[in-house]
Amino acid sequence: MGIEAFSAAMHARKFPLEFPGHFIGGEWVHDAKAEALPPSVNPSTAEPVGRALLSRKIIDAGFESADQAKNLIRNSTLDDRINALGRLRNLITDYEAHIIDALCIEAGKARWEAEADFRASVQQLDSILAERHNIRQFLLGPVMLAWPGTEFDLQPNGITLAFLPFSTPLATFVQCLSGAMIAGSPLVLMPSSHATLSGILFAFIIEKLDVAKGSVNVVFGNYHHFSKALNDKRIQAVIYSGSREHCDALRRDVTNNLTREMILQSGGKNAVIVAPKSNIKEAVRQTIYGVIKNAGQLNTSTSRAYVHESMLSAFKEEMIRGIRALKIGPTDQKDNPHLGPLYAQKAVDKFLRYQTMAKREASETWVWGKALNTGKSGYFVSPGVHFFDELQQTSSYQTNVLMCPDLSVYRYKEIEEAIAATNDTDAALVTSLFGEVDQVRPWIPLLKSPNVLINLPTVGLDVFLPVAGRKLCGDYRLNGLGIAFLLTYPQATKVAHSDLREFQGWPALD
Questions:
Q1: Do 305 and 399 fall into the same domain?
Q2: What CA–CA distance (Å, rounded) separates 378 from 329?
Q3: Distance between CA atoms of 81 and 478, rounded to whole angstroms?
Q4: Which terminus in the chain has less CB density within 10 A, N or C?
């Protein structure tokens, strides 16, 4: 089966689709003794769409292939590898309709959202290609500044293992592959079992990419297999985006991770701050956008709003109107709702538990979040919005990253109150400020959030945030193409002058 046949079967909804295998060393690989992973499910219908088969032998083959490719990659130039990213850009554009279809079917993304994710990924590659002649200097800048007259080069750390989450498979694929290509790092990509369709499409694209065999391998799995794979000592860099619990567990694995570059990012307790005299309709519209994009299952999703007391009544009225106007429904056909399904029934159950907690704790529930019957068997909910007179850091509901379409609203009188509350979290990833630019810009240095957006929703930069979250969200790491910096190390070379002038100040040894 090739990409055209696979895409045609997906377009015709002939589910579950045949699993073509894992892509290792430039070939599609099977193991007769492999066991079936939990199926990938269409969250709009609760029906299986595909299932991967995996064994320890397959995982070992992926790392062996990457290990053998190290010398092949070293023989390539940075220009060669950036040219490969140019081909990647062309290939994902060639298969745009198929990729967007997979995101709508499997990730539960509305078409408008899948198309936005696709555009962002292409723009990321365009930015890399536009800066191709500056990339080496950007990555080496700090050491080049400190040692003028010394020759520097970038050396790859070694094999990189990267996980592709269900929520942002395309964007994460582009980010990880771009970083590894620029770094010259052999890559083992592990798509989540919830991202099987996307992962297969990406493997077909890699097959057409014309890169060194084994330099990019696709091995399907889930968090359990990903964490177990870290026992392989050949892995030198780890990229993972997922739940707080999973990231914490990876951080605690000291035995495996002492000598590795760990790039971990989990969901943030992301907030918006609405300033006095701001455009309330626009502030509410973008807050809702941050709450509902990918059904609130993004690391950058909005979960808190701090509203100046003079704006609270108007904010409430507009928020209730906006939530009630949302179109919620399936994303796997031609419909284009505002809000699609959560990824699984367990996510719906978690959402409903938190709605009960919020109802008990809130001063007032503006919109009661509930499971929604759309006539389909999918995992649909309507958003919840709750107002609190004060922030309680002992509350499980108010402090946890929920990863669902839900919003807590607080009033503030002085901006220092809102900034202090926003900063008082170990999960600050993005903060959005709504108001006149000259009014809100002075607040930026007071915020601990590493990414601050003005008059944009917290999801405004999606997975391509420049900086990963602080503390529990990502350890202050570079993000986006900046991961290439973390996948390499600078190597300095300096040759003595022919007159040995470096030794002129040294005392004689006789």
A1: yes
A2: 9
A3: 21
A4: C
pLDDT value at position 172? 96
Selection from 162, 160, 405 nearest residue 287 by Cα: 405
Q: Do residues 76 and 90 share a domain?
A: yes
Domain count, the chain: 2
Q: State the pLDDT at residue 462.
A: 67
Yes or no: say if 117 and 103 are a contact pair by the CB < 8 Å rule: yes
Give 238-251 pLDDT, tens digit per residue: 999 999 899 989 98
User: What is the pLDDT at residue 427?
Assistant: 86
Among 12, 133, 25, 145, smallest CA distance to 82 is for 133
What's the CA gap between 489 and 152, in Å, rounded?
10
Residues of the chain under the 70 pLDDT cut:
462-463, 510
How far are the Cα atoms of 11, 49, 219, 275, 373 from residue 202, in angstroms, in the given order? 16, 16, 11, 43, 33
| 118 and 162 co-located in one domain | yes
CATH of the domain at 287: 3.40.309.10
Do residue 420 and residue 376 come from a single domain? yes
Whether residue 237 is found in the same domain as residue 373: no
Q: Are 411 and 405 in contact (CB under 8 A)?
A: no
Task: Please report the pLDDT score of residue 461 as a whole number.
Answer: 85
Whether the full predicted model's pTM is greater than 0.85, yes or no, is yes
What residue ranges in 182-291 does DSSP mark as E strands?
187-191, 216-218, 235-242, 261-266, 270-274
Count the alpha carbons within 13 Å of 157 in the hemisphere toward its beta carbon: 23
Beta-bridge mates of residue 238: 161, 262
Instruction: Extract the tokens encoding 284.
Output: 């509410």
Token couple for 51: 């299932």
Spatial separation of the C-alpha atoms in residues 349 and 353, rounded to whole Å: 6
Helical packing angle, 78-94 and 169-183, nearest 10°: 160
Alpha carbon 27 to its chain centroid, in Å, reads 27
Print the domain residue range for 166: 3-29+52-266+469-492
Is omega for the bond preceding 445 within 30 degrees of 0, making it cis? no
